[in-house]
């Protein structure tokens, strides 16, 4: 006769239960129940049994901390309450401990396959469930039975397997086998139902899956009669109709986390249960997976987990390296036949439906979102994974960026791709295994196994600061470009070095006394990647919403049919067609960084992408935006090959747009905006002259360039200065920009000496001049530059120039409104300008012979001028 030996904890618990039984018997009315009992059962003594899994496990010497306690004539909750009341007695708490007992009552819920209330407690480090013995009556429509109090025999016969139907009677300390087959089946390793299998399964079809789970858990065999019933159509139909998908998932998960998932899937396969377990219940006939090669798939996963070859060792080490990843591998093997299902119809929202394999996981099995996502990503990335796997050589950046796109589950997606490929061509299994093993080894050798978690050396804010632009949606993809560079240069981990690569190395053109020669600097690799990325993927989509300038073709060339009218966009809000002016205003900063960071090669390559947004900004109606356009074009021209300008024919287009910017003058344009756009337009015009009409080393002169600059002088400076009138700040701005213009013209400035000298002389001789020291300073700088560039002819105009210089010198003596520092600064500049004039006049004999007399006559007239003329 089989017997069970209790450990010390179990002995203590048994003693407690016997004490509680005695307590109940000695306490009147304590066992009253809301459930009516048969007369025979009501008169029977209270009997406690331990049931099911605990008995089975103890008989095969498997430790168990879970005990199901069955009571013959009380509900589980009633009996548990009696335990609680008993333990609260003073003399009892000393014996069994004073820790309060907490009861957890689980109500009966037939819709969730919970047929009788259960009460759970934790005591003596044991998890204990209390239920009453019961018998069940089923209907054809549901697996949810009508439940009544039953005898031990009835309770045993309603169970799923004979090995789970035995009891341990705590009163007699004996094992009770009311089916008369439990002990024998446990000894022989047989799983069978206590009653006729068909009746048992039709009453509760979930038992089909439970029997598979128990068989594979203990390595037992399901008896032939049970297998035949499990494979029958009516049982499958009942399983589909009566069992909730949550309960199916619970059983499947236990199988695949158990000791022999391969055997469990083999049972599902051999018994024809695949389309009952792995199905979309809302549309079971939508697709019938091809299972011809499925056994190869789950056998392969078993080989990988048990490392049967060198190839599987690598795959296991990287993709199936712990218990959780083993479970996911089995889930991949389970559902991979659904990979080739056709696309489901679009959702009601119009969005594409997820892959059917993900729908089966979600709706058919009620798995976790982690698994849904894995199936979706595996299908989406399968072709890319196969492509990378098949490449003979792999670039670290492209592979690393792919892994980052695939995400943290990428190794499981690789496993999915491999398993699917083996299912397609099982005869090539060894070659496929070898290829994937080599691919994973390459990823490991490149230190890319965790590439998905690599952090960019720069964050978004640092990148935006380095590019001098506002943060925005562009940062995410820009940081991908930075990451690709990091992947190509893993040895470079210096954040400052990366910032230096990204940061602009070219400043915008500014007038300098001795401007350095423009040098073409080769882009850094990261800078080149970023400029290309921003132009093609960030800026072009934004500017594509704005109508292209009418004088520009799509390829960035001059439109010879420029007379064609622009598209009428009146009434269209800027935010609709010019998002770069409103919500995406960061785009202008980004475009400026691109223009500053270009080299000749990149300008040539990206011309068609560059020009439309630059001209669009330049042609905008807002003065502030036009100013940005001037800055953009200036920086672009500094890096544009001359022959490219000639080929595209855009010089006249640029010229027209920039010259129009110099006409934005008060009073039609506010003074502040006028000054800003003038300071942007003049440098851009000079940059255009340099780019369009370069002087080769063999040349000293370029007539086309001179012609262009003289046009700028006439239309931008002379016209603007005349229009400025008494607006001192605008006049000052024009004079400041006259200096680089004269420098660019050089000796050819003499063509307009007759116009320039009077302007400067009258300005300096103005009676109110000293009241505007900044304007006087600008006039003196322009005079000094004019004397320098027109030196061979400046002597003709020495009298007019002296008139302005001496007039300002004398008025500085008379005007007491200036700070002394301002007066001293102006006097110093006056001496410098006179010195330059003196040197130029003395270099020509024609003028030098009278020069000394002319100066003396002036000092004789006013001694104060001697300090101006003093060398």
Summarize the structure.
This protein has 871 residues and is mostly helical.
Q: What's the CATH class label of the domain at 1-188?
A: Alpha Beta
- Total of helices: 41
Do you know the CATH topology of the domain at 1-188? Beta Polymerase, domain 2
| Structural class category | mainly alpha
Please, what is the average pLDDT?
A: 86
Which second-level CATH architecture of the domain at 1-188 applies?
Answer: 2-Layer Sandwich
How much β-strand is present in the residues?
A: 5-15%
- CATH homologous superfamily of the domain at 1-188? Beta Polymerase, domain 2
Main beta sheet: strand number and arrangement?
7 strands, mixed
Could you characterize what this model shows?
Helix content is about 60%, strand content about 5%. It contains 41 helices and 11 strands. The longest helix has 23 residues, at about 820-840. A hairpin with a 2-residue loop joins β4 (about 120-125) and β5. It starts with 7 loop residues before the first helix and ends with a helix. Strands 3-4-5-2-1-8-9 form a 7-stranded mixed β-sheet. Among the domains are: about 1-190, Beta Polymerase, domain 2 (2-Layer Sandwich), CATH 3.30.460.10; about 295-455; about 460-500, no CATH class; about 730-870. The chain has about 850 residues and is mostly helical.
Describe how the helices and strands are arranged:
Blueprint (H helix, E strand, L loop, with lengths): L7 H19 L12 H5 L4 E4 H8 L6 E6 L4 H12 L2 H7 L7 E3 L11 E6 L2 E7 L1 E4 L8 E4 L2 H6 L9 E3 L4 E3 L5 H7 L1 E2 L5 H7 L2 H13 L2 E2 L1 H7 L2 H10 L2 H12 L4 H10 L3 H4 L16 H12 L4 H10 L3 H13 L20 H9 L4 H22 L5 H11 L3 H15 L4 H17 L14 H7 L7 H15 L6 H8 L22 H19 L30 H4 L8 H12 L2 H19 L4 H15 L4 H7 L2 H11 L9 H22 L10 H22 L3 H18 L7 H12 L8 H17 L8 H17 L5 H23 L2 H17 L4 H4 L2
Parallel strand pairs: 2-5, 10-11
Antiparallel strand pairs: 1-2, 1-8, 3-4, 4-5, 6-7, 8-9
Helix pairs in contact: 9-12, 9-13, 13-15, 15-17, 15-21, 16-22, 17-21, 18-19, 19-21, 20-24, 21-22, 24-26, 26-28, 26-29, 28-30, 29-30, 30-33, 32-33, 33-34, 33-35, 34-35, 35-37, 36-37, 36-38, 37-39, 38-39
């Amino acid at each position: 006769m089989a017997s069970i030996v209790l450990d010390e904890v179990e002995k203590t618990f048994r003693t407690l239960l016997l004490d509680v039984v005695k307590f109940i018997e000695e306490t009147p009315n304590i066992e009253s129940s809301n459930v009516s009992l048969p007369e025979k059962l009501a008169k029977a003594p209270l009997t406690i049994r331990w049931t099911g899994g605990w008995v089975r496990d103890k008989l095969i010497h498997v430790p168990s901390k879970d005990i199901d306690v069955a009571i013959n004539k009380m509900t589980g909750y009633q009996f548990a309450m009696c335990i609680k009341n008993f333990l609260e007695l003073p003399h009892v708490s000393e014996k069994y401990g004073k820790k309060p007992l907490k009861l957890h009552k689980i109500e009966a819920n037939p819709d969730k396959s919970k047929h009788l209330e259960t009460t759970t407690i934790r005591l003596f480090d044991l998890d204990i469930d209390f239920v009453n013995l019961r018998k069940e009556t089923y209907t054809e429509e549901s697996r949810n039975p009508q439940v009544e109090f039953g005898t031990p025999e009835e309770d045993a016969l309603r169970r799923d397997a004979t090995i789970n139907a035995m009891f341990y009677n705590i009163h007699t300390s004996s094992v009770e086998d009311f089916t008369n087959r439990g002990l024998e089946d446990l000894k022989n390793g047989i799983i069978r139902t206590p009653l006729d299998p068909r009746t048992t399964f039709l009453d509760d079809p979930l038992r089909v899956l439970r029997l598979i789970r128990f068989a594979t858990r203990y390595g037992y065999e399901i008896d032939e009669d049970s297998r035949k019933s499990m494979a029958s159509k009516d049982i499958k139909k009942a399983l589909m109709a009566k069992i909730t998908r949550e309960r199916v998932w619970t059983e499947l998960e236990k199988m695949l986390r158990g000791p022999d998932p391969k055997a469990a899937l083999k049972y599902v396969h051999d018994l024809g249960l695949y389309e009952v377990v792995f199905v979309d219940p809302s549309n079971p006939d939508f697709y019938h997976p091809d299972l011809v090669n499925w056994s190869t798939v789950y056998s392969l996963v078993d080989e990988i987990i048990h490392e049967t070859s060198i190839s599987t060792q690598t795959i296991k080490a990287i993709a199936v390296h712990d218990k959780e990843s083993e479970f996911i591998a089995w889930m991949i093997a389970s559902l991979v036949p659904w990979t080739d299902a056709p696309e489901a119809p679009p959702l009601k929202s119009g969005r594409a439906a997820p892959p059917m394999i993900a729908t089966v996981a979600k709706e058919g099995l009620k798995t976790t979102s982690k698994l849904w996502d894995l199936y979706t990503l595996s299908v989406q990335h399968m072709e890319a994974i196969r492509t990378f796997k098949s490449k003979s050589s792999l670039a670290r950046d492209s592979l690393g960026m792919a892994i980052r796109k695939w995400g943290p589950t990428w190794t499981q997606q690789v496993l999915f791709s491999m398993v699917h490929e083996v299912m397609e061509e099982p005869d090539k299994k060894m070659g496929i295994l070898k290829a994937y093993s080599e691919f994973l080894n390459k990823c490991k050798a490149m230190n890319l196994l965790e590439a998905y978690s690599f952090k960019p050396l720069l964050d978004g804010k640092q990148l935006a600061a380095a590019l001098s632009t506002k943060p925005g949606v562009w940062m995410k993809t820009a940081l991908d470009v930075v990451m690709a560079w990091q992947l190509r240069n893993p040895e470079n981990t210096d954040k400052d070095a990366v910032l230096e690569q990204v940061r602009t190395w070219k400043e915008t053109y500014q007038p300098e006394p001795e401007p350095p020669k423009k040098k073409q600097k080769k882009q850094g690799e990261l800078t080149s990647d970023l400029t290309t990325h921003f132009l093609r993927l960030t800026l072009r989509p934004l500017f594509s919403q704005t109508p292209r300038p009418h004088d520009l073709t799509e390829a960035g060339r001059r439109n010879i049919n420029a007379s064609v009218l622009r598209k009428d966009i009146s009434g269209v809000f800027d935010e609709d067609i010019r998002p770069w002016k409103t919500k995406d205003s960061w785009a202008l900063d980004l475009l400026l960084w691109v223009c500053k960071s270009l080299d000749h090669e990149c300008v040539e390559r990206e011309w068609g992408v560059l020009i439309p947004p630059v001209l669009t900004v330049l042609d905008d109606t807002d003065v502030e935006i036009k100013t940005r356009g001037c800055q953009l074009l200036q920086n672009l021209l500094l890096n544009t090959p001359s022959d490219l300008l000639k080929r595209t024919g855009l010089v006249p287009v640029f010229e027209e747009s920039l010259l129009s910017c110099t006409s934005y003058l008060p009073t039609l344009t506010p003074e502040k905006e006028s000054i800003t756009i003038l300071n942007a337009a003049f440098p851009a015009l000079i940059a255009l002259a340099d780019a369009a009409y370069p002087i080769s080393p063999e040349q000293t002169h370029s007539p086309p360039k001179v012609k262009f600059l003289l046009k700028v002088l006439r239309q931008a400076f002379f016209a603007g200065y005349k229009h400025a009138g008494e607006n001192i700040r605008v006049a000052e701005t024009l004079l400041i920009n006259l200096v680089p213009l004269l420098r660019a013209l050089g000796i050819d400035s003499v063509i307009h000496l007759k116009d320039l000298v009077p302007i400067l002389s009258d300005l300096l001789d103005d009676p109110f001049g000293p009241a505007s020291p900044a304007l006087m300073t600008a006039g003196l700088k322009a005079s000094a530059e004019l004397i320098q560039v027109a030196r061979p002819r400046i002597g003709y105009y020495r009298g007019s120039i002296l008139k302005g210089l001496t007039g300002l010198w004398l008025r500085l003596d008379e005007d007491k409104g200036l700070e002394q520092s301002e007066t001293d600064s102006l006097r110093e500049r006056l001496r410098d300008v006179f010195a330059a004039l003196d040197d130029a006049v003395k270099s020509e004999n024609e003028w030098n012979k009278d020069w000394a007399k002319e100066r003396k006559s002036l000092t004789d007239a006013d001694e104060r001028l001697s300090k101006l003329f003093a060398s």
